[in-house]
Every structure is written in C-alpha cells, then in structure tokens.
Amino acid sequence: MHFLSSNLFIPFLLLLVLSSSLALSQNVQNISLGSILTTSGTTTSWLSPSKDFAFGFLPLATNSSLFILAIYFAKTNEKTIVWYPKEIKSPLFSDSKLLLTSDGLLLTNLNNETTRNLFSYSGTSYAALLDTGNFILAAADSSPNWQSFDDHTDTILPNQLLQKNKILRSHLYDDNYTNGRFALSMQDDGNLVLYPLALLTDSTNSYSSYWATNTVGSGNQLVFDFIGTLYLELDNKTHINVTMSNLSTDEFYQRVTLDTDGALRHYVYPKDVTKNGSWKNEWTVIQTVPLDICESINGDIGSGACGFNSLCQLDQNRRRSCQCPPYFSLVDENDMYKGCKPDFVSPSCYGGDGDQVYDLIVMYNTNWPGSDYEYYISYDEDHCRNNCFNDCFCEVAIFNGRDCWKKRLPLSRGVISTNVGGKAFIKVGINSSSSLDPTRQHIEDKAKSQKVWFLVGLPSLIISLFILFGSIMLVVKVRSSSSYYKRIQLNSSSVGSTLRCFTYKELEEATNGFRKELGSGAFGTVYEGFLPLNLKTCIAVKKLENMLKEKEKEFRAEVQSIGQTHHKNLVRLFGYCDEGANRLLVYEFMSNGSLTNFLFGGARPSWNKRMEIILGIARGLLYLHEDCSTSIIHCDIKLQNILLDNELTARISDFGLAKLLKPDQTRTNTGIRGTKGYVAPEWFRNAAISTKVDAYSFGVMLLEIICCRKNLELELNSEDETVLVYWAYDCYKEGRIDILIGDDKEALGNFEDFLRLLMVAIWCIQEDPSQRPSMRKVNQMLDYTIAVPSPPDPFSNQVSNNQAL
Questions:
Q1: E runs forming strands in 365-417
Q2: Is residue 296 part of a domain?
Q3: Among 356, 393, 473, 802, which residue has the least CB neighbours within 10 Å?
Q4: Which of 259, 292, 636, 645 is the catalytic position?
C-alpha cells in the first residue's frame, strides 16, 4: 500500500460528492413512469446512453429458465453483473416483470400477482441508468430518491464511494447471489477491513479480519477514482492505495469485486481489443488483495477459507480451490462451506471401534493451523507418526522438521501450499484404505482361510495351531500399535524424507558414463541421467569438487539436512554418493533450464510470468532462511542458480552447498564465496555474514528480471549503464523510470508494480546490511502486505534513522 500526499484530489472529491445531483445533468436517457421490463420480448433491459451498462433480467448460466435482476456490463462477452437487489433471496421465474411507478420499482409476474416493492420511494418522477453504471430513481427536481451506488453489493465501480458503516459483501457462489461469507467494511472507526462472516445462520457476526489498512482514527472513505485507482482517503486528505491499474478508464472497463472466495480483485477489460493488441476480450485480474487468500484467513475461530476438515489451495490463477482430504467427503455436495466428513469410523477412546485398524496417509505441504491439542519440540518424524498413531484422540499429526503437532476433529483453516512445508499424517480406518494395500488384504484373506482350516482340523493339532495363531495375533497387534502401518504418498512427485545413497557405479550407469553434460560451474559439473530401475525419471547428477575433508558421517549428516527441505521453489534432492573420493548429488531434472536462458535466450518473457518467478524465488529464500530446521544461507544467488521446471516455476538450486564447500571456494579473485556482480559488500570487508547476503543478491537479480538485462554489460555505449545497480538507482533518483523500462510495453502498462519492485530491489542492495530487509519483509512488500518506503542511496553509509526500513 502506498501513502501519498495528494491535495490535487480535493477538487475531484468535491466533484464526486456533488455527483448525485450533477449526474442527471449528463447525457441521460430518462426512463419514464410506466416503463416495463420482462424476462423475454422486446424490452428485457434498460441501457445507459453509451450502452456500456444495462439494467434488466439476466438468465442464470446454470438454468436459463431462472433469472436475476441486475445491472451488468452490456458489451462484454460475458454479461458481468455489478449490482443486484439484495432483497431478492432466490432466482426469479420466467414470468417475472418489473414496473417503474411513482412509488418506485414494482416486481410482479405477468398476471400482476405476488407484487413486491423493491425500492419504495413515493414521488419518483423517472429513472435513469448513467454511463457510470449508477441506476437512479429521480424526483421531480432531478434529485435522486435512491441510487444503486449507495446500495452496495459485491462490486465497486470507478467514480463510486464506500463510506463509513458501508460494506461490500460477496455472494455465496458464482451462480448463487445470496449473501456470502466475506465482507469489506469501511468501519466507523476509520479502519478498512476484510473479514469472514458466520454463514450458516446468515448472520452478520464477523470473525477476525484477514486484511486491514490499520487506519483506526484516520480513515475517512474508500474511493474508486476515474483514473482507475481504488484508495482509502484519510482525514488529512492523504490516501492509501488499495489497488491501481495505470490503465485509462476510457479504454478499459474496470471493476473491483469482492469475490466469492474472499479475495478483493481488480479486473480490467479492453473496450476495443484492436487498440490494445496484447489484451484479450476477457476480464483480466491485475491485482488481488490479499495475494494468498488460503493462508490469510487464519483467525482462531471459524473454518478458514473453506469449510471444516477441508483444504484450501490456490490454482494456477491464484484462485481458491477447496477439497476434502483423502477418505473424507463433503457433508453437502452442493455446499463446500459445510465442510468434509470422514468416510470411515473415526478413532475413539471410548470404545465402539471393535477390531478396527488404522493407517496413516501422508500429505506434503499440508496443515490445519487450528485444532491443536498437543505440541512436541525436537521430535523426529518417526516419533511424531507413532505418537499420533497410538493416541486414540489424534486424527492428524503435523511434522515440520523438528516440531510435531497433534490435532483432532473438526480441523480448521486447512491449506495446501509450499509455504507451509512439512507433512501431515492423516489417520484413516483400515477398511476404507485396504483396497490400496493388496498385501494386507491378502494376509487378512489368508488368515480367514487358516481360521476355517483350524476349526475343521484334526484334534491332535489344536494345541499347536492355537499357539501358532496366538503368535500371529501377537505380531499383528504389535505391528498395528507401533510403526508398522502403511505410509501412502499422495504426491507422486514427492520422495520420502530418507535420501537414497547411490553407488558410484549406479550413477555412472544412470548417466551413460557421464556422457551428456548439462553445465559446469564452481561447484562441479552436472550431467543428465535417469534413475536406476525407473527410466522415466530424469535426474541431474552433480559431481562436486573442492569438497571439505570431512568424515563420511558428517558429510551424510549435512546432505540429510539439505534433503529434508521440501518447498515448491527449491530443486529437490533425491540422493547422494559418498564413495571414496567421489562426492555426487542427485537432483530432480529441470527441463526448462536456467533463468539466464529464459530471460536472455529469446523473446522477452511476459510481465506476469516474471512476477511469478520473482515471488517464487522470494518464497524459496524465505523458506531456506527461516523455515528449515537449520537456517541455510545460499551464498550464491544468481540467475544461473534459478532453474525452471515443466510449468516454468522458479526453483532455487545449489542451496546448502555452502555447507559442503571449502571456505575459500569462490568464483572471483577476492577469496570470498559468490559470483561477481551478486556479491554483498560485507564479503569484501571480511565481516561476519548473515542471510542478508542472499537478500543483496536477490536485489541484484530482481533488477535483472524487471529490466531484462544483465547486471554487468561491458559492451554498452554509455559507461553509466555498465553496472545495472548503479544505473538503476540513478534513474530512480532522477525520476527517469521510463529509461529503465525502455521499450517494454508490458512493464510500462504495469508502471506502479515496476516502480514498487524497483524500490524493493534498491532496499535489498543497500551496502549496509542492517538497512536491508529480511526475506520475510521482502515477501511482505511483494505481497502488498506492507508499504514500500522510498529507499535511501544504497551506496552511502550515511543513512538516517527515518530512512531505515
């Protein structure tokens, strides 16, 4: 969010306040008393003068014989609704009719039965739908008796206000316009907040907010101005930007909608695609608040972004997807918010389970942050699994490196995300999962046949069979009560936490004699290969050089530490080889190569893809710095060490190798670790290093990604442009951001985002490490969670306190 002083907006605000009375002096097509709308026939809607908006009956996408009365965009491919009467709780039938009377709008059927006054305002003279999308019931003097801009639903349009004690409220589902679970409230105390609502009783009781401007005592009103910026106006006339488009409202339709999943999204749609060739005839999301709805809704009370016992996950468009965990199903197939129920008899400490046996199913990057009843510190994975398995109260255990949480139903705030990390062990009944375990089913069938044979066998064998049977039952009991349960991996791309120790011969065969070289660097050479016994799994085998002369046990301990990292934005380590003088690491293969090739190997990547890559790298570094069992400083963040998988997701490679290399391993002549152009200044001062060296390298790389040029260009005509970090700051200081952007039209169309990323990068490349943000703060700035202050000169040590981040 940006804090900007703006007295220039005062005239606009005065104009906006007067808009109710001035609006009718615009080009208006009056709708006279007695006018009628029907669901079919010649008059199903009333249009604004520009024909951009319509007010009338729209058939539901799921049932064309049912209708909703609404204001909607009339020229878009999809007739997108921006307002609907909240008083109507159910869809309308095809015989519905709307009549404009002197008492307001009258809803009835074709036979004039079951009448309903939607907006009862006596003295109505006429109505009008303005080009802003505002529908007005006007009095004889043209003053509005009622207007839709004051009767908010889930959408706010340019030139519209949200004043104190007013809310936007989502509808329930895309095809269900009853009240939903989320609200954006301009509170009387001046704070603008997003919060979930208690749904089952359709009450207005709210849970804890999941996003807020924190402007208690200073906020005034929310304004969506005519240039496409949604901002909170403060009492002192400064404002906080909530979303902004940098696109002209003359060329793009715009709206900000509180969607059904609780995210506030800013949408744009080109009015003429021939004039905006890079845009499609569809609504495009240019900003989302908050960025991750699944993880943002985390209050102590309530189910979270989805229902109880369910899991929330973002899809590729960053929209929420709700799902039940394995062997759970929706309580109501038509309503995800009612949560999920187990499809098996849940464990009980109070009897009733009979001989039911339970298994644990493993899910990666999964957690339900609520519902904890026990917490253990410094546990290993086996202890965590066994503890839950033997606890009749425990339904789920969460293991994250060294901590273990036990949970019971109902589970709340469920989320699947690489930011979560760790594993969830879900206890399910054996009867529900035996079909997944043919070995166990065979054992049980064999036991039944043995029982029949036992009953009809010779009396002389009764004693021996009894002893044998008792022994078998004892083994089964021991196994079922300890660690002998099935571990099912639901993520096919995941590998168990125990790394495989390969022999040198195995890797030599897997790489066909180390024949195909993928690349080489300071740490060694990388070869392509295929996992033994699984020729479909492509791997990258790195032969390490200049290794520390450690004992075998210490080397394996370090590798195991690296192998325990599990994150979407890290390259996965499959195993290693520690045989004689040979030290090799086996990684998953990244099919799209390095970020260097992606940025500079052909056409310039799209702005949105570059943004995704930036966010992915930042989250991966945060995980290494703060979420691993032991913090890992990468020490060599650069474009070449960012690899791209099949879906062009950014994956950090070579992390943790700093632990394994000699202290003097370097790619420069300075006796330090790192790569020229990315090395933090403290390396040159022989000062102690911290995670801030990675923040510095990230800042350099961030400039490379947004500017699409290398950090060091020796062949440029201008000497001032040779070093990117110096040139970028000079352009920022002189207000010449356009020079940095150059001919990048997409970056120019996202100017505010470009400027924000540039400011984040300048903060990261501060020479004084204490002035640099942590990667957690970097992520918060990238996610719009906190504002990005103007950065100081990064190459001056004279930084005042009020300039520190």
A1: 366-367, 372-376, 396-400, 403-407, 415-416
A2: no
A3: 802
A4: 636
